[in-house]
From TrEMBL:
<comment type="pathway">
    <text>Cofactor biosynthesis; thiamine diphosphate biosynthesis; 4-methyl-5-(2-phosphoethyl)-thiazole from 5-(2-hydroxyethyl)-4-methylthiazole: step 1/1.</text>
</comment>
<dbReference type="GO" id="GO:0004417">
    <property type="term" value="F:hydroxyethylthiazole kinase activity"/>
</dbReference>
<feature type="binding site">
    <location>
        <position position="39"/>
    </location>
    <ligand>
        <name>substrate</name>
    </ligand>
</feature>
<dbReference type="InterPro" id="IPR000417">
    <property type="entry name" value="Hyethyz_kinase"/>
</dbReference>
<comment type="function">
    <text>Catalyzes the phosphorylation of the hydroxyl group of 4-methyl-5-beta-hydroxyethylthiazole (THZ).</text>
</comment>
<dbReference type="Pfam" id="PF02110">
    <property type="entry name" value="HK"/>
</dbReference>
<keyword id="KW-0460">Magnesium</keyword>
<comment type="similarity">
    <text>Belongs to the Thz kinase family.</text>
</comment>
<feature type="binding site">
    <location>
        <position position="160"/>
    </location>
    <ligand>
        <name>ATP</name>
    </ligand>
</feature>
<feature type="binding site">
    <location>
        <position position="187"/>
    </location>
    <ligand>
        <name>substrate</name>
    </ligand>
</feature>
<feature type="binding site">
    <location>
        <position position="115"/>
    </location>
    <ligand>
        <name>ATP</name>
    </ligand>
</feature>
<keyword id="KW-0784">Thiamine biosynthesis</keyword>
<keyword id="KW-0479">Metal-binding</keyword>
<keyword id="KW-0418">Kinase</keyword>
<dbReference type="InterPro" id="IPR029056">
    <property type="entry name" value="Ribokinase-like"/>
</dbReference>
<keyword id="KW-0808">Transferase</keyword>
<keyword id="KW-0547">Nucleotide-binding</keyword>
Amino acid sequence: MDYLATVRELQPLVICYTNDVVKNFTANGLLSLGASPAMSEAPEEAADFFKVAQALLINIGTLTNQRGEDMLKIAAEANKQGVPIVFDPVAVGASQYRKDFCRRFLEEIQVTVIKGNASEILALVDDAATMKGTDSSVEGIPIDIATRAHHKYNAAVVMTGKTDIIVQDGKGVALDNGTPILTKVTGTGCLLGAVVASFLLKDTHPTVNKLAAAVSYYTISAERATSSASGDLPGTFATVFLDELNQTTTTCYQQEIKKREVKTHDI
């Protein structure tokens, strides 16, 4: 199935409750893709929005007590109306406050996809895990943490890193596309969560292939951006990346995807 073409044809409305640092970049990235972003943070309008929205992104990057309560109310309404949720537990291991909120959120809300780097996913399943900010470095941690999170929270897991890992329905894939410069531009990981949400199209149980398509489209667009003049410099990359999100086609990522299946007992 051509998931990208479907997204561009339907132009899904994606509600983004995301952090203050990345709102503009996230909105522009979704517009470049062909989706329609709405940066709504008011629980009072959630019921109306979810009558037409195709997905909800919850990103906890600039978490406060009030925002946390609003996220829970908005997500509960999404559950009520059958709207899929992508949950991005940004820097969850940085503080007990973030851990407590994420675990409360995942207990009260049924999410469709959990998207995070290895440190963040580990912090969701291991009480002893710590991290510094949004640092994604995990030394000596097996990638079975993605499977542990998948089973614990009954959600698909997109775990990002040098190799991206996706686990869903007992199946796992590893994706080896991407570029290190993604770590030099604020908001790129947050945008990925929004891109994944845009591919869901009201689907609360996406296949591993649909999720792989979303991630591969994103990472291959990033690779293509680095091949442009000065595309290996952060400032230029951020601009050209938006252009490539607009220009990358299904044919491009199908030809360039580096995807391999991973047996779940090996994950």
